[in-house]
Design goal:
With about 350 residues, the chain is α/β, with parallel strands linked by helices. The chain is built from eight helices and 18 strands. Strands 7-8-9-10-11-17-18 form a seven-stranded mixed β-sheet, with helices on one face. A six-stranded mixed β-sheet has the order 1-2-3-4-5-6, with no helix packed on it. A hairpin with a 7-residue loop joins strand 8 and strand 9. It is globular, with a radius of gyration of 20 Å. The two termini are about 35 Å apart.
Length: about 350
């Protein structure tokens, strides 16, 4: 059988099904793995996504023609049986399982294997061919347990509050911010409120409407007592750095939460006081375990550390190759939604 999925100029195309997966140019039929901007774009005639992603997709893309599927349920389109399975990346993130002519392909989108309370945990899906990301596809990337990172953030916040300084934590608006909110402990003695930037608060609402428990958050304009701000934890997108909005907090300590913070050079370029290594993507052991769990003999790598992962998989007996895609371009400090 010819390849079920190929790379076209519009995106990844399921040939027998005649639909695209996370296309980067406008198409007739798009299956969307999750609502991050590099995977979910405006302009498609119709969208199919996991039910859990509906609120965020509509918040970000507006009035789109969207059909949704609960995880594990299937529809058949042009002879291809399509089902969506948890990717553990962000709220509503999904892997796309495609079955046709006795062959099964899975496109993972972005994923992580450590479970967190803000999204349905990653579910390995058995397949013949697995399409994987490799954002952190180098052996140096090995994450600490997230509970340790949240404890570090709590301790940093408490120390700053004791000195009368706000703790400004830069993090990506969709996914990372909500994961931090769910992980920190706002009930520690002496702490102030949690303040969220205007780019983050609409996404908090979408998470809460989806049933995800988040602690109370406030907008900076709601706080008139400056002593509260001096003990606050402030979540803001990278684009807020050096903006007039930051002047409201006076003398503050800043940090950045991202997998890239494992690299000293990245931390230095961000010029922040603290780097917290927290990623919504799989680390190297996570990629290895996820690929192994699929049982796939063929693996196609889409973005990230592509040559390294392809070579490693080939050396370990798998038929590995790559698709050239437009996913995963890190959005810089001028944009709010980069998501590593």
């Amino acid at each position: 059988m010819a390849d079920m999925v190929v790379a076209r100029k519009e995106g990844l195309y399921c040939v027998p099904g005649q639909f695209y997966i996370d296309p980067w140019r406008p198409v007739e039929r798009a299956v969307i793995t999750h609502a991050h901007a590099d995977h979910a774009r405006i302009g498609h005639a119709s969208y199919l996504a996991a039910a859990g992603s509906e609120g965020v997709l509509r918040a970000r893309l507006g009035d789109i023609r969207l059909d949704t599927l609960p995880y594990g349920e299937a529809v058949t389109h042009n002879g291809v049986r399509i089902s969506l399975h948890p990717a553990g990346h962000v709220l509503g993130s999904a892997q796309v399982r495609m079955e046709c002519g006795g062959e099964v392909w899975v496109a993972s989108g972005d994923y992580k294997v450590e479970a967190d309370v803000t999204c349905t945990p990653f579910e390995p899906v058995r397949c013949d061919t697995f399409i994987t990301e490799s954002t952190f596809g180098l052996p140096i990337y090995r994450w600490q347990p997230q509970a340790d990172i949240f404890a570090d953030i709590d301790a940093w916040w408490a120390a700053n509050a004791a000195e009368g300084r706000a703790s400004v934590l830069f993090c990506y608006s969709f996914g990372k911010a909500q994961r931090i909110l769910a992980g920190v402990n706002p009930d520690l003695a002496g702490l102030g409120p949690i303040v969220c930037h205007g780019a983050i608060e609409p996404l908090n609402r979408a998470y809460r409407e989806a049933g995800v428990a988040l602690p109370p958050t406030r907008m900076v304009t709601d706080i008139t007592d400056k002593s509260e701000l001096r003990r606050a934890l402030v979540l803001a997108p990278p684009s807020a750095g050096n903006s007039p909005w930051m002047k409201r907090f006076g003398d503050y300590s800043d940090g950045f939460a991202s997998g890239w913070m494992q690299l000293r050079g990245a931390r230095r370029r961000r010029a922040v006081d603290r780097g917290f290594v927290l990623s919504d993507h799989a680390d190297w052991p996570g990629l290895m375990s996820a690929i192994h769990a699929t049982g796939a003999q063929r693996v196609i790598v889409t973005h990230g550390q592509v040559p390294v992962l392809v070579r490693w998989l080939q050396q370990n007996g798998l038929d590995a190759g790559a698709f050239d895609t437009e996913y995963g371009a890190e959005e810089d400090v001028t944009t709010p939604d980069a998501h590593a």
